[in-house]
UniProtKB/TrEMBL annotation:
Cellular localisation: Nucleus
Polar residues bias: start-end ranges: 1-19
Residues covered by the H15 domain: 19-88
Sequence ranges of Low complexity compositional bias: 60-70
Descriptive protein name: H15 domain-containing protein
Region named Disordered: 1-24, 38-181
InterPro entries: AT_hook_DNA-bd_motif, Histone_H1/H5_H15, HMGA, WH-like_DNA-bd_sf, WH_DNA-bd_sf
Compositionally biased tracts (Basic and acidic residues): 47-58
Organism of derivation: Hibiscus sabdariffa (roselle)
Biased composition (Pro residues): 103-117
Keywords assigned: DNA-binding, Nucleus, Repeat
Ranges of Basic residues composition bias in the record: 172-181
Pfam families: AT_hook, Linker_histone
Matching PROSITE patterns: H15
Length: 181
C-alpha cells in the first residue's frame, strides 16, 4: 500500500473517472494553451485546469503538485524560476570549456591535406651526408656539484700570514664599533 503510486483518479467517483483525462495530459494541455514564454507556474496551470474541467477532485492541488514533480523528474517538463515548460525538441549542443576555435577557411578540393604539426620544439635539421659525431662526455675536468670541505691541519694555521696580527696583550678593546679617527 505505501509503495504504490498515487493513482491518477484517486478520490474520484466512477462517473468522474471516465470523463477526466490523465493528469499529465491535462497538465500538458494547460501549458500548451497558456503558451507563456517563461513557462507557466503551478497556480496558472491549476486555474486553467479548473476552468476547462469543472469536475476535478477535492485533492486536485496535491495531485497536481505530485504529477508536476513526477513529470519534472522524468524529463517531460523543465522547471525554470518556479515555472514549468516543455523541453525543446531540438536541444542546443552544450559548449565546451575555454575559448572556441577560430573558424578555418575551407581548402580547395584539390589541395593536399598535411598531417597536423607535432607538439614541442622541432628537431634540428640533420645532415644525412655528414659522418656521425662520436659521443664525447662533456666535462671541464671538474666533478659536478659543490666541492667537499678540506680538513684543517696544524700546518695550515702556521702558514697563514694573510691574517691580522693578534692585538697586544695589555690593550683590551671596548664593546661596539670603534670611533672614527
Amino acid at each position: 500500500m505505501a509503495t504504490e503510486e498515487i493513482n491518477n483518479t484517486q478520490g474520484l467517483h466512477a462517473s468522474q473517472q471516465a470523463s477526466l483525462p490523465d493528469y499529465p495530459q491535462m497538465i500538458m494541455d494547460a501549458i500548451e494553451a497558456l503558451n507563456e514564454k517563461e513557462g507557466s507556474n503551478m497556480t496558472s496551470i491549476s486555474k486553467h485546469m479548473e476552468s476547462t474541467h469543472s469536475d476535478l477532485p477535492e485533492n486536485h492541488s496535491t495531485l497536481l503538485s505530485h504529477h508536476l514533480s513526477l513529470m519534472k523528474q522524468s524529463g517531460e517538463l523543465l522547471m525554470s524560476k518556479n515555472n514549468y515548460m516543455k523541453p525543446d525538441p531540438i536541444p542546443q549542443p552544450k559548449r565546451g570549456r575555454g575559448r572556441p576555435p577560430k573558424p578555418k577557411a575551407p581548402l580547395p578540393p584539390d589541395a593536399p591535406v598535411s598531417p597536423p604539426r607535432p607538439r614541442g620544439r622541432p628537431p634540428k635539421p640533420k645532415d644525412l651526408l655528414a659522418p656521425p659525431k662520436p659521443k664525447t662526455p662533456v666535462s671541464t675536468g671538474r666533478p659536478r656539484g659543490r666541492p667537499p670541505k678540506k680538513a684543517k691541519t696544524d700546518t695550515d694555521t702556521d702558514t697563514d700570514t694573510d691574517t691580522a696580527p693578534p692585538p697586544p696583550p695589555g690593550v683590551k678593546r671596548g664593546r661596539g664599533r670603534p670611533p672614527k679617527v
